[in-house]
Amino acid sequence: MSARTTGVTVRVPAKVNVQLAVGAARPDGFHDLANVFLAVSLFDEVTATPADTLTVTCEGPDADQVPLDRTNLAARAARILAARHGIEPAVHLHIAKNIPVAGGMAGGSADGAAALLACDTLWGLDTPRAELLDICAELGSDVPFSLVGGAALGTGRGELLTPVDAGAFHWVFAVADGGLSTPAVFREFDRLTADVVVPAPEASPALLAALASGDAEALGAALGNDLQTAALSLRPQLARTLAAGVEGGALAALVSGSGPTTAFLVADQESAEKVAAALEASGTCRATRVASSPAPGATVLPS
């Protein structure tokens, strides 16, 4: 493979955790997880073009909240990939942002995975998939799944992936005002569980069976997020959003990951539109997004 002289655009999905089982804090500060990821059809696009030096720009909803310095995961991905191959990270990365920022849907992780694949393609490196996944894990716990997409069980701190079967499902996501810091939510989880024995996290057999069968009602009954109580402790008003979606016809509701985006499982596309309208009318969220799952992982778009 040879380096390209024109830009490379990669499309990458958001995720919802249909189960997020959290263990006690480890000595390294992370938590063991049983994290059932499902990629959904809300996408960011990252375009990598040749440049004299590494720069990042961003457009789209809440783009002003995206850091454009060295802390940006897309920039970090470019630097790590370049260092492994002994080249300079001479690239301009442009992020077309559609995934909610700091919303518990892995938007930053998605951009890191997309930038990694875009730079690998732009520079003609042909890095083995296993090495790309290793770099993803170095970038963050959710980044490997953003590269892979579909549906998977994440163990360890979420970075060790096992693909799982998933039928088609429909979702509504309610976007909250402001974000929630994932480390802050985990700290609140630790505070709330300080006096109890936290069991080792395990994936729910009932949830995995419902996911594979495409049975929305069974999946709704099995959804779970051990971080939800912590997120609601930090953002009590999210309880009103969850209630509004269920009252509007959702089969089930939960906080997406560490929040504050809330996710509503619905029966079909028509139900999704009704639930989205009910949420917007309730005044309990800033915006809604309708999506389906599963969605493909990071994908190079035709040039």
Distance between the termini: 16 Å
| Uncertain stretches of 5 or more adjacent residues | none
Task: Give the overall silhouette.
Answer: globular
Strand content: 25-35%
Report the mean per-residue pLDDT as an integer. 96
Q: How many DSSP-defined strands?
A: 12
Helix content: 25-40%
Radius of gyration, in Å, reads 19 Å
Tell me the quaternary state. Answer: single chain
Question: How would you sum up this structure, described in words?
Answer:
With 303 residues, this protein is of the alpha+beta class. Helix content is 34%, strand content 28%. It is built from ten helices and twelve strands. It has helices at 73-85, 107-122, 129-139, 143-148, 182-192, 205-213, 216-222, 228-234, 238-247, 269-282; strands spanning 8-25, 31-50, 55-59, 91-96, 151-155, 160-163, 169-175, 224-225, 252-255, 262-266, 287-293, 299-300. The strands form two sheets. Strands 1, 2, 3, 4, 5, 6, 8 and 12 form an eight-stranded mixed beta sheet that branches. A four-stranded antiparallel beta sheet has the order 9-10-7-11, sandwiched between helices. A hairpin with a 4-residue loop joins strand 5 and strand 6 (160-163). Helix 5 (182-192) packs across helix 8 (228-234). The chain starts with 7 loop residues before the first strand and ends with a strand. The model has no long low-confidence stretch (mean pLDDT 96).
Would you summarize the structure shown here?
By secondary structure, the chain is of the alpha+beta class.
